[in-house]
Amino acid sequence: MDLTPRPIAAPESRAQRQRRRWIPVAIVALALAAGGIVVTQFLTSAIDYYCNVDEVGLREGCVGQRRIRVQGNVLENSLQQVDGVTLFALSFNDKTLQVRYQGDPGGVFQECIPVVAHGRIINGIFDSDRIEVKHTNQYVEKNKSRFDEATNETAACSQSPE
Amino acid sequence: MTTFQTAFEAKSKTTGTAASKKLGAATIVAVIFLVLSGLIFSAEDVVQGSTVRIMYVHVPSIWVAYLAFALTAIFSGVYLSNRSRSLIWDRLAGASAEIGVLFVAVSLVTGSLWGRLTWGTFWVWDARLTSTAFLFITYIGYLAVRRLGGTFRQRARRSSVMALLSVLEIPLVHFSVNLWRTLHQKASVADPNAKVSLDGLMLFTLFWGLISFTMLFAWLLVHRQRLMALEDAVQDRGLDRAIQQRRTEAGL
Known about the structure:
- The complex is a heterodimer.
- Chain A is built from three helices and seven strands; from the N terminus they run ααβββββββα.
- Chain A is an alpha+beta fold.
- Chain B starts with a helix and ends with a helix.
- Chain B is mostly helical.
- Chain B has one domain.
- The chains are: A alpha+beta, B mainly alpha.
- Chain A binds chain B through residues 21, 24-25, 28-29, 32-33, 36, 40, 44, 47-50, 71, 105-109, 113, 116, 130-143, 146-147, 150, 162, and chain B through 42-49, 52, 55, 80, 117-121, 124, 126-127, 161, 164-165, 168, 172, 179-183, 185-188, 194, 197-202.
């Protein structure tokens, strides 16, 4: 039997103890960062809330008969109400999609405003059962002179790709 | 007289100081001016109408929540790295997180009301709203961890680690509108590349809201931290009394 005294481990220095304390925190932080990279780099198309009009039928997740959300501008002079049905055209990047919605979308829905329509394409028309108005980050005071200016601006119905 | 009252009166009649009273008075004045500016002086938005006024509470609320959670992480870091391990840093972290949770809740409720009037729905599962809800739940979890029991130092150590990890969610929440397509609009002011697109008094009122809510946060933080110190003192006294009782029962 070996009865020689065991070597006594040198006591840890304060710096070593502190380093050891931070190792689990660093590992969890790294795991979180890796998770963040996976989410931002590889799941973008799944996390995106909508497809743009010009991506319908082309982009992964925006094809086929499946239920999708489509974003675009309500085209000027396209809005009609027929027998309780709202008909309008959604436009984005020079592509247009006809939309049919049962009822009145309500809220601030109007022409020349970006909206997200939920539904599916049936016979080339987007049959929507839910409309959400997508407000921009432009805030314009409502007064006479500015109102005219804003009306002229929205008349252009322009929307930059996002 | 309860133990809490004894501890409270032993230390002070109030959690305030002359400076915190001045801060409180200034905060009241600032909030009154915010109400006047938000509801009367500033104009309606051309599309949203009066709904835009919700922004003057919604944006400052989430700003204060970000600030509170960032401070929670900073105080926690100071606690862990400081040799003295003073519990004041832990209490400041806890107080800051509590206020942050309150303001995220305000932001979620006001955002939901704004969403109903503008989008047409109270809630959607887009990246901004979902990540904000996740942030809210994370910090409720943080507050729950603080109440798990154990000694003050155990509480401080585990909650500090959680605070340092939880704060990493804030950039994800803030930049979610740029990383993904969301129904929520992009940043109007906080984006360095975006041109400021708020007319006249709207921008001023929004900034005034940020200032007033920050003052309110500072006032709440001072008082809540002091109240936490008193709660800890009460807990200590309760423990001392229980130990004394057991010693008496054992005839020691």
